[in-house]
Request: fold
Amino acid sequence: MALNSNEAVDDNEEDGFPWETVGKRSSVGLSKANKVAGLKVSTLMSFTKVAVCRKLEVTMGRVSEAIVFEKVDVTMGYIKDLHCLSTTTQDIGLGSIEKVHIHSQEELVKMALEKLDMNPPQPSPSAPLEPIHVNAVVVEDIKH
Reply:
């Protein structure tokens, strides 16, 4: 079962990865890519060394290492190492996945950031900043 290309891709879901820094959709076709990232990644008759995404579709392609948060669809393709959550769905047709590694969400986010050479997102302050009150004392009165 292939991922529908018209399927809505939700980039508002909070899983700890800064999805706003990558594209909504990335495709690799009839070529080779070292790293590809997006909310949805599709490969067609291609080789991808590292793929980081929420949803991955491998159609007659090969992915050496995939880091997937939600769904993997392998029709006639091959994934050597799949790193995912226990809740990630896997649909496999005539293709195959050699090894599946289950991680916690925090581990998966950390691994994805490392593979993409990205820094972890900085947390926003939990409390609003408060002004600092300064008591000024006049030391010398300047006369014009």
Summary: Residues 1-9 have pLDDT under 50 and may be disordered.
